[in-house]
Every structure is written in C-alpha cells, then in structure tokens.
C-alpha cells in the first residue's frame, strides 16, 4: 500500500508548513521600508543620540586665516529596547491522518496573514497615534506612551528647539483636510523649520502618506505617471499643477486607521529619524506533542521601532 506524502512526522510536517507559510507571505506588500530605516541589531538595546545643527561655513578672513571649528550640541537621546513577539497554530493529528489538507493550509495561511498584519500595524502606529502621547493605543489595543524624546507627540505645535531651549518652539501639526492648497501650505511650512542654531533646515516634502480614503485627491495633487493632465484638482480656471512633475511620491497605506489624516514627509530626513531594528527576524519552527497529538507551528520575532525626531514630516489631523 502506498503511503501518504503527508505523515505524522516532524521531519515531514516542518517543510510542508514552512512552504505553505512562505507562499502566503510572498506577494504581500511590506510598507515598513517606505517609513523606516530598517537595520539589523546585535544588541538588546540600541541607542541613538541626536545632534544639533552643524552651523555655517565662515569666511577665511574672519576665522584668523584658519579653519573655523564649531561645536555641535547634543540634543535628545532615544533608546530602542527590543520586544519579543510570537504567534502559533495547533494542528490535530487527525487532520494529518485524514488528509484534511484544506484545513491545514487555512491554519498556516491565517498564521502568515496574522504575522504580516502585525508587522504592518506596528509600522503605522506612528501615524495612527501621531498626536497622542500617554494615551496612545498600540495594535493590540493596549495603551502606551508615544511621546518623542522631547516630550511631545510626533506631530505637535510646540516642539522645543533643544533640551536647553524650550522657550522657542516649532510646529509640524495642522488640522486641515487634504487639498492642493493645504498640501502647498504644509510644503511651505516645512521649509521654514529651523535647527537649534536658528538656521533653516530646508526640509523638502517629497512623499505624501495617506489612507485609502485620500488616495484619489493625493494622486490628483501629485499627478499620475505619463499623464498629460497637469491641472490643479478642483480648479475651474485650469491652473497648472506645479506639483504634478513627478517629484511627489504617494504612499497609500491600508493600515492607517484615521481616514482623514495625512502626512507630507521629507523622505531623506524621515529615514534619518524613523528607526526599525530587527534583533531577530520572524522565525518559524514546529514540534509534535506526544501527549496531545498536536503539531505546533510558531513564528517568533524580536524588534523595536520608533522615531527620534519630528522634523521630517508635517501631519494634518482634521477633526
């Protein structure tokens, strides 16, 4: 009698489970790299020390005919302590013996989908809780403190210039709904930000992050690839859309829960500030239990993520 290819044997079940899991993950879009500088970590905690403005070059004759050296001040420090996350599925031996392949596949596929959604929902917490601090709610519904090292929410109207200067403040938060005019206002506002020495940062908004509900207006503002229509959306006078030149990238993220919120980001500055550390990439494993006759398949990962600075994005959170 020919034996089934699927047997109650860990060495047989492990590659089957892994293949089902891998196939389910293959075509899922990962939004995390569009928002974070993703790095590998080999420590329990990562530390990022923010530094202030570099100052400006000096005329040779005003620096005693020698190189002008200027101190760079240390700003806030951010610690990233990795957390461990896990999820698993149990499969009864009877499912294997009776070749209930659809039931087995569905359990592994649902596990892969849950792991994927966890990663994406973790990644979007920065926008979903963008105007909150101690009342922020994570992807599991638990309250946590989302305050930046400066003590403010990511998007706030009163970010201090430095740890030693809390009198002068700057804003990266608005309450306007997305339109060509409010986009323009955010674009201009970002260019007016200054560093701790009072010099312009020259932040240039080049990436627009929106939820699905704002996809239509976002693409109208940024322009469609190879489209000959380059008018401002909503303009009866057919005014030229100066942003429809291909310089603005639109990221539509289905995991943004606020259907009205949108963020214009300087992608370079964003990658410098938004950090995602992988201490242990999602790792699969399985075991068969002698007493319960259950096959257990797990996924475990360790990571940390967050932002060390606010001066990369201007967020609008309409009521």
How widely separated are the two ends?
Answer: 69 Å
Secondary-structure element string: HEEEEHHHEEEEEHEHEEHEEE
**SSE-based structural type:** alpha+beta
The amount of helix comes to 10-25%
Rg, please?
25 Å
- What topology, given as strand order, has the largest sheet? 9-15-12-10-11
Number of continuous helical runs: 7
Q: Which parts are unreliable, with pLDDT below 50 for 5 consecutive residues or more? A: none
Total strands:
15
Strand content: 25-35%
Choose one word for the global shape: globular
How would you sum up the major sheet? 5 strands, mixed
Calculate the mean pLDDT score and round it.
91
Essential attributes:
319 residues; single chain; 5-stranded mixed β-sheet; 4-stranded mixed β-sheet
Task: State the gist of this model.
The protein is an alpha+beta fold and 319 residues long. The chain has helices spanning 10-26, 93-97, 101-123, 125-128, 180-190, 215-222, 267-273; strands spanning 37-40, 45-51, 74-81, 83-92, 136-137, 143-144, 159-162, 165-170, 173-174, 207-210, 249-252, 262-265, 274-288, 294-307, 313-316.
Task: Give a written overview of the molecule.
This protein is of the alpha+beta class. Helices cover 24% and strands 28% of the residues. The chain has 7 helices and 15 strands. The strands form 5 sheets. Strands 9-15-12-10-11 form a 5-stranded mixed β-sheet. β13 and β14 (294-307) form a beta hairpin. α1 (10-26) crosses α3.
Layout of helices and strands:
Blueprint: H1 10-26, E1 37-40, E2 45-51, E3 74-81, E4 83-92, H2 93-97, H3 101-123, H4 125-128, E5 136-137, E6 143-144, E7 159-162, E8 165-170, E9 173-174, H5 180-190, E10 207-210, H6 215-222, E11 249-252, E12 262-265, H7 267-273, E13 274-288, E14 294-307, E15 313-316
Parallel strand pairs: 1-13, 9-15, 10-11
Antiparallel strand pairs: 2-3, 4-14, 5-6, 7-8, 10-12, 12-15, 13-14
